[in-house]
UniProtKB/TrEMBL annotation:
This is Alpha-galactosidase. PROSITE patterns: ALPHA_GALACTOSIDASE. Belongs to the glycosyl hydrolase. Residues 627-703 form the Glycosyl hydrolase family 36 C-terminal domain. Residues 55-77 are annotated as: Disordered. It comes from Streptomyces lacrimifluminis. The keyword Nucleotidyltransferase does not apply. Keywords: Glycosidase, Hydrolase. Substrate binds at residues 180, 345-346, 422, 455-459, 504, 526.
Length: 709
């Protein structure tokens, strides 16, 4: 069956993925309308859906608010518009006039449908893009809007896509909320009637929400049930609006920006929205997550098949007190642990002695690094490690040479106060000269100092978001900023093919499919408390894979929570993603260093399972039961089980954990104990994990399939 097919008789377009179908048609008014999103259909079966009679609506309702591929503002539409236009004469609205279609094959196993329209009255063109692939059920959608006239147009709303769910008995919405140091808190709640808005107005993805949603009928579990989900590939302000109508339908629309902003279009200018990718799966939330993980590692992350190195970061050891001698001493200790990437954090540049000065002056401090970063980088490389550095290119301290020279480069509104957060202001990356300045010093830093890795931070949200002197600047900056950010990273990586980049924004404040398409991993949270991290990682992993999730082992009592848990527990929690170490190694005892080195060695034996395997959440991080995650490798030849106990109340029964994804009928050997287990017993009757009662306990079990002779 082709990936995209069309019936001239019914007007139905059918998009086919390995396990699902997506069907739509253009109705008699010219509007693109949804037909189906779910299990596989033939073109004839999809055509039968097009022939279904619509329920009679009252004269008060107008067009149904759910069911169009891109609901517009105009006529008798009263739901949340995906496309809202204001023309030069201040009139609004859009009327669909189909003008053609194209089916493209940009790569083997990839097909793209483009449906083209114009407005009936004004010279405005709209193209709806749908991309499907032979190896994933993810459908990628985006919209291109072009001002074909000679007068200015404002897009008050320009969403990437609207998604329609089939009629269900109930609807439940899954998403994440949070704040700094408590990101990715998973919520599953009944979708209320009316409109539910998830958004960021901060100029970044934000700690407080993330641009993805999952919906189900309220019956799905981790292992069972049909789930519809979508994720927006955008790293600036965004909005997703889910709605449930009084007549029992549900859908959602999403794209860039938030209320009160617009996308200006000059004559001849066009705006291409980011991808809003959607996915329908059977097999519960776990199957949905694994499908997103596979899609992200296959089609989003630039080099996901690489094994990420074990990382050390100097922040908790040195803070701002960074110099060549102390960093070399730390690097020697890190190398003894088996670390493969050494990262110098904040404090290496300009007048940086605290967070009050120096941002913007990106040259090594002479008295701390007399010969620049080259000698330190050389020492790190001779120890067999890669060399990384922390940067925050989008920020400036008012106490800096850069700000004194270019005070106009920051986001600001003339006559208004320039509000500082963390003693810093936001550079206006929408300005080409600012982006060019950042690209220039970054490419020199990487090239001149042998830098292999950048930790790219962004430590505050927008404020006084103005762009004086630029027509429509206060609106234009929201999208131009992100476009220039992407461009700087893309150019930097093109200059230095070996460079790897971590996205960070005060922790997990900028994590989305857009930034992940040009970086290698994400700093999940500034909260490194191992117990809190299990909750954060649980929410992060609903959509994003372990291959993108940085996790550190830090010292106790934890700097944020003051909680103390064993070193082994901290390592096991960090081994759920990309293992890093952030403690002060100069204070670790010989016993701790030896235990840490052994655990690093253990991780290296199984990291291919964590970073490239399938994730099964066997028990969640909330409640009195142990938290258990499992990773299954290619062809189910190996598996890793990580279990954590928080100290449950006395008397709770020990319940075996039923493993998933193993080869039926096979046997698996515990790599540590040599004990051989039957896969069917592990899957149907479970495994008792070696978790000590009381206190903080953790375990790691590496299973290797026994090949029959």
């Amino acid at each position: 069956m082709p990936l995209i097919s069309h019936s001239p008789d019914t007007g139905v377009w059918l998009l086919t993925t390995p396990r699902t179908s997506y069907a739509l048609r253009i109705d008699e008014t010219g509007a693109p309308c949804h037909l189906a999103w779910g299990p596989r259909l033939t073109l004839a079966e999809a055509g039968a859906l097009a022939g279904r009679a619509q329920d009679t609506v009252s004269s008060f309702e107008g067009r149904p608010p759910v069911g169009e591929e891109l609901p517009v503002d105009g006529g008798t539409r009263y739901g949340p518009p995906s496309l809202q236009v204001r023309y030069a004469d201040s009139s609004r609205g859009f009327e669909w006039v189909p003008t053609g279609h194209r089916v493209l094959e940009p790569a083997p196993g990839v097909s793209e449908l483009v449906l083209e329209f114009r407005d009936r009255l004004y010279p405005l063109d709209v193209a709806l893009h749908y991309t499907v692939r032979a190896d994933t059920d993810v459908v990628e959608r985006r919209t291109v809007v072009r001002n074909a006239g000679e007068e200015h147009v404002d897009l008050l709303r320009a969403d990437s896509a609207a998604w329609t769910l089939p009629p269900l008995r109930d609807y439940r919405l899954s998403h994440v909320t949070g704040q700094w140091s408590a990101e990715s808190q998973l919520r599953r709640d009944t979708l209320p009637f009316g409109e539910t808005v998830l958004t960021s107005r901060r100029g970044i993805t934000s700690h407080h929400a993330n641009p993805w949603v999952m919906l189900d009928a309220g019956e799905a579990t981790e292992e069972h049930g049909r789930v519809w989900s979508a994720a927006l590939a955008w790293s600036g302000s965004w909005r997703i609006t889910a709605q449930r109508t009084p007549d029992g339908l549900a859908g959602f629309t999403g794209g860039v920006g938030h209320e009160g902003t617009s996308v200006p279009l000059a004559p001849g200018e066009e705006f291409t929205t980011p991808v809003f990718a959607g996915l329908c799966t059977d097999g519960g939330f776990g199957a949905a997550s694994r499908a997103w993980h596979t899609y992200t590692t296959t089609h989003v992350l630039p080099r996901a098949r690489e094994l990420a190195p074990v990382l050390y970061n100097s922040w908790e050891a040195t803070g701002f007190d960074v110099d060549e001698a102390s960093q070399k001493a730390l690097a020697e200790r890190a190398a003894l642990l088996g670390v493969e990437l050494y990262v110098v954090d904040d404090g290496w540049f300009g007048a940086r002695r605290s967070d009050r000065a120096g941002l913007g002056d990106w040259t090594p401090t002479p008295e701390r690094f007399p010969e620049g970063l080259g000698p330190l980088a050389g020492s790190v490389h001779r120890l067999g490690m890669r060399f990384g550095i922390w940067v925050e290119p989008e920020m400036v301290n008012p106490d800096s040479a850069l700000y004194r020279e270019h005070p106009d480069w920051v986001l600001h509104v003339p006559g208004r106060a320039r509000t500082e957060m963390r003693n810093q202001l936001v550079l206006n990356f929408a300005r080409d000269e600012v982006a060019e300045w950042a690209y220039g010093w970054l490419t020199r830093l990487v090239g001149d100092h042998g830098v292999d890795f950048l930790k790219w931070d962004m430590n505050r949200a927008f404020g006084e978001s103005g762009w004086p002197g630029q027509r429509d600047g206060n609106d234009r900056l929201w999208t131009r900023y992100v476009a220039n950010l992407y461009d700087v990273i893309d150019r930097l990586r093109a200059d230095h093919p070996g460079l790897r980049v971590e996205t960070c924004s005060g922790g997990g404040g900028r994590v989305d499919l857009g930034i992940l398409s040009r970086t290698d991993q994400a700093w999940t949270s500034d909260n490194t408390d191992a117990v809190d991290r299990l909750v954060i990682q649980h929410g992060f992993g609903q959509v994003y894979p372990a291959r993108a999730m940085s996790a550190w082992v830090t010292d106790v009592p934890n700097q944020l929570t003051a909680r103390s848990v064993p070193l082994r527990f901290r390592f096991h929690a960090a081994m759920c993603g990309l293992l890093g170490i952030g403690g002060d190694l100069t204070r670790w005892s010989e016993e701790e260093l030896a235990e840490g080195a052994a655990l690093v060695a253990d991780y290296k034996k199984v990291r291919h399972l964590v970073q490239h395997g399938d994730l099964y959440r066997l028990s969640g991080p909330l409640g009195e039961e142990p938290t258990v995650v499992q990773y299954v490798g290619e062809d189910a030849a190996e598996a890793l089980v990580l279990g954590f106990r928080y100290g449950p109340r006395h008397g709770l029964p020990r319940v075996p954990v039923r493993l998933r994804g193993l080869t039926p009928g096979a046997r698996y050997r515990d790599a540590r104990t040599g004990v051989v287990h039957h896969a069917n017993v592990l899957g149907e009757y479970g495994m008792l994990l070696d978790l000590a009662p009381g206190g903080w306990s953790s375990t790691a079990v590496h299973l290797v399939r026994v090949e029959e002779v």
